[in-house]
Amino acid sequence: MHDDVTYSPATRLVALGRPTRTPGAPAAPGIELSSTYVLGDGPTYGRFGNRTWSTFEGVLGDLEGGRALAFASGMAAISACLLMTPPRGTVVVPQHVYNGTTSLIDELEADGRLSARRVDPTDTAATIAALDGADTVWLESPTNPMLEVSDLPALLRAARERGVLSIVDNTFNTPLLSRPLELGADVVVHSVTKYLAGHSDVVLGAAVTADDAIHERLHHHRTLRGAIPGPHETWLALRGMRTLHLRVARACANAAELAARLATHDAVAQVRYPGFGAIVCLEPTGGLAAAERIEERVRLWLPATSLGGVESSLERRRRHAGEPESVPEGLVRMSVGVEDVEDLWQDLDAALQP
Ligand SMILES: *Cc1c(COP(=O)(O)O)cnc(C)c1O
């Protein structure tokens, strides 16, 4: 890649993170498997740094507009970010976010480590009011699994004005649909497990920030607590990211088409779809029993948790104990993949029949 040309994200996904072009150099980066290094300048030990991590981090950081740090999982990154809240500090968090995040905040609250203010993030004024005197604000837009969309620019601006540390879980959007750092967020976190890696074969997380002091704190946390990824995982994630733009475009187009068809389906009471992204939630008219029937009947859709893979999957979210009671019993979260949309529709329509 030439430094003097500004390439689009699609091109950067393909071209960045490749070995230097010298005669005989490989086109693709290798996997560095070493726990230790020869003393002197450069890397020293496998928990402190690894060049396969760095290659992945370089590409993700470029796309989000900051410096990325890979973590062992999305939850490892989320945990590192939440623990930047000072002892007995206050975190503002939407009522519905990824249930691992909710459970972690509940536990930290029960331990007296921090206190939480739960908000409806679609109520911008109430969320901004909750920021007064808070230390950290956690945001997801859309939220998981209710798909509520918040006014991120307004909320992030308000957080910045009040000196509240803002963290955005950008897993559902990827940097192709939203770049929260450009909107004023301090940190973006990802479950790389989902769209970024994209093939349901790796568990990995990342935190991205443009602030050097925050980067240093997160790096320190990762090193000292050992929340490090494996080199294989970061290599697989970068390999998956080469086609992120193609996968996201196809999955989003499929999701828009399916959401439109579901909206007029006799067996569907409600469809949640924010108008972007590839997650669609439906509530069948038959409630819980009908939702369980969908999970049992699908042949092409994978009945499984997780999301963001090339393959379409779905699950009734309330099957998980951590999901709050405000999530309807019959809500089925669908992660729309990149298959032929007619095949997806046929399978779903058959599963929805009374
Ligand atoms: C899956 C998920 C996580 C957790 O990531 P892991 O890689 O499973 O640890 C966090 N946030 C969102 C939005 C997720 O979908």
From TrEMBL:
The UniProt keywords, alphabetically, are: Pyridoxal phosphate, Transferase
User: What's its EC?
Assistant: 4.4.1.2
rRNA-binding as UniProt keyword: no
A single MF term (Gene Ontology): transferase activity
Q: Which GO terms describe its cellular component?
A: cytoplasm
Q: Look at the named UniProt entry and state the broad enzyme category this protein falls under.
A: lyase
SUPFAM superfamilies, per the entry: PLP-dependent transferases
A Pfam family this protein belongs to? Cys_Met_Meta_PP
Positions bearing N6-(pyridoxal phosphate)lysine? 194
Q: Name one GO biological process term.
A: cysteine biosynthetic process via cystathionine
Needed cofactors: pyridoxal 5'-phosphate
Catalytic activity from the UniProt record: L-homocysteine + H2O = 2-oxobutanoate + hydrogen sulfide + NH4(+) + H(+); L-methionine + H2O = methanethiol + 2-oxobutanoate + NH4(+)
Q: Which InterPro entries match?
A: Cys/Met-Metab_PyrdxlP-dep_enz, PyrdxlP-dep_Trfase, PyrdxlP-dep_Trfase_major, PyrdxlP-dep_Trfase_small
What family is this protein classified in? Belongs to the trans-sulfuration enzymes family.
What is the protein name given in its UniProt record?
Answer: homocysteine desulfhydrase
Question: What is the species of this protein?
Answer: Flexivirga oryzae
